[in-house]
Amino acid sequence: MDTAEEHIVMLPLMAQGHLIPFLALARQIHQTTNFTITIATTPLNTAYLRSAVSSDPTLSHSPRLHLAALPFNSSDHNLPPNTENTESLPLNQIIDLFHSSVALEPPSHRLVADIAAQEGRPPICIVSDVFNGWASRVAERINTTNVSFSTGGAYGTAAYMSVWLNLPHKSTDTDEFPVPGFPDSCRFHRSMLHQFIRAADGTDSWSRFFQTQIPLSLGSSGWLCNTAEEVEVSGMEILRKYIGKPVWGIGPLLPPAMLNSNSSTLTQHSGKESGISAQKCIEWLDSKPKSSVVYIAFGSQNTISSSQMMELAKGLEQSGKPFIWVVRPPVGFDQIGEFRSEWLPEGFEDRVSDGKQGLLVRKWAPQMEILRHKSTAAFLSHCGWNSAMEGLSQGVPIIGWPLAAEQAYNAKMMVDEMGVCVELARGVGSGVEAEEVRKVVELVTEEGGKGGEMKRKAVEIGERMKAAMRVEGGRKGSSLKAMDDFVSAIVSTAAERRRRSNGVATG
Fold first, then answer.
1. How far is it, in rounded angstroms, from Cα 200 to Cα 170?
2. What is the pLDDT of residue 269?
3. 157: which residues sit within 8 A by CB, 6+ positions away?
4. What values do phi and psi take at 65, rounded to 5?
5. Would you call the peptide bond into 43 cis, given omega within 30 degrees of 0 as the criterion?
6. Could you tell me which residues are beta bridge partners of residue 11?
7. C-alpha distances out from residue 324 to 218, 284, 300, 344, 500, Å
8. Exposed end of the chain (fewer CB within 10 Å): N or C?
9. Within 13 Å and on the Cβ side, how many CA atoms surround 481?
């Protein structure tokens, strides 16, 4: 089968943490095949991806990567004007955005049909976000294959799907409960559930979305997962059993420089304006001892409460450990507004700045450069999968503070399965004391004891990630081999489908 003219259409979810992994997946397929790739999303998200592509030397001049803008008007869906991404939306409106994403089905169908008409055959495959389950209907109507892509890890993805589809916490009055698809010995805790899942009853807006889209994605022909076999051994086993379809672990989908120990250059791929230059950050880190700095960041659209922020600041100062903290307004305030000093202890920023203990960064920090630096000892993180992989790929242990989505499940896996994480808090409603912050920071940054063991295991996980994504001695790592297996599967499926369409006997 000649693959020179083959085409893949990608349909990401309208969320910051989903767009970049899709672009990274496109890069990986681009380097593996000669397929044409079209990533289709709404106009503003397309503009964002175009900005990210322009800084990617692998993709910026490629004639085989196309970005297609699908018509979308947020005002038609009770959303603020020009809202096409979860970023900057309050939590209670994110579900409205998710529901609005279903409106992309008709224009996606038209796009795929147009490609089929122009090229004389349908795209070889649609790769859709797991929450864009409607893409399975598009693929069926256009006579092609849909493969679902989870931008998260295997364990967290399986837990998130099972909890939403089964609402297991509703069947018990106890705080701990089993989750279908997970071993009987594994128990989840009610505090791990976001407020919307706790309140869900199957008829609410969140349930209606997830309980419709996830089953549609489960009907796709297979799944791609942003993880590696040897990084999530039990997670991949759980996910495969739950889905009952092929699952290809093709990650971690990180910038190549983060997976190459010898590389000194790194192109930031967030497409965002940093609140501080990478050079200034590195100079500050260069002035600190090896493995001494705590990096604090809660991802692209998460924040904590004002009282939690106050206690976190006090605890960091009391620990005496150097830190870089990406600050943003607390819950209840405009997330893209100016950060005000009143949200921190009086004189805090001046004291930690003058004493060279702390560096507070507004907007965005050059996160990957920080995590790669030899002075970085620990990452206080919301445990979003992209951030967790970035930290662990550099052998940096995690202080977990999960806030939403599947983050608490990721934290559980990193604590129980990997031993690379210790949880400080869960959600914006949990009580946080400065003394506990101090203790946890000191524990994770200590050279021996539990901190030293976490560091050793994080380094080991980082090495597994790198091995999965490299060729050594002529042998491909597990994730590169999985990508080859995925490509072989869709090529074989397309050939079979076309033989049937042409009425040729298959034997």
1. 9
2. 46
3. 130, 150, 225, 239, 406
4. -110, 125
5. no
6. 128
7. 41, 9, 16, 15, 59
8. C
9. 12
Tokens of 418: 């990997």
Angle subtended at Cα 506 by Cα 505 and Cα 507, rounded to the nearest 5 degrees: 95
Residue 25 phi/psi, 5° resolution? -65, -40
Predicted pLDDT at 507 = 40
CB 423 within 8 A of CB 489: no
Torsion sign over Cα 215, 217, 218, 221? positive
Distances (CA, A) of 328 to 32, 307, 325: 39, 14, 10
Instruction: Over range 90-109, report the average pLDDT.
Output: 94
Three-state SS sequence of 332-365:
CCCCCCCCCHHHCCCCHHHHHHHCCCEEEECCCC
CB 31 within 8 A of CB 101: no
The β-bridge partners of 39 are 10, 67
DSSP string, 371-395: HHSTTEEEEEE---HHHHHHHHHTT
DSSP code at position 207: H
Question: ∠ CA 444-445-447 to the nearest 5 degrees?
Answer: 110
Residue type, 420: V
Q: β-strand 293-297 against 247-249: which pairing, if any?
A: unpaired
Lowest mean per-residue pLDDT among 52-56, 240-244, 292-296, 405-409: 52-56
Cβ-in-10-Å burial (0-12, 13-18, 19+) of 449 comes to exposed
Q: For tokens 């951030």, name the residue.
A: 387
Paired tokens of 104 = 């992309």
Q: pTM of the entire structure?
A: 0.93
Cα–Cα dist 392/389, whole Å: 5
Structure tokens at 284: 């500050």
**253, 293, 380, 436 from 433: Cα distances, Å:** 36, 21, 15, 5
Which stretch of DSSP H or E encloses residue 68? strand 65-69
The amino acid present at 65, given as its one-letter code, is L
- At 403-441, the pLDDT tens digits run 988 999 999 999 999 999 999 999 888 899 999 999 999
Helix pair angle (16-32, 43-54), 10° resolution: 50
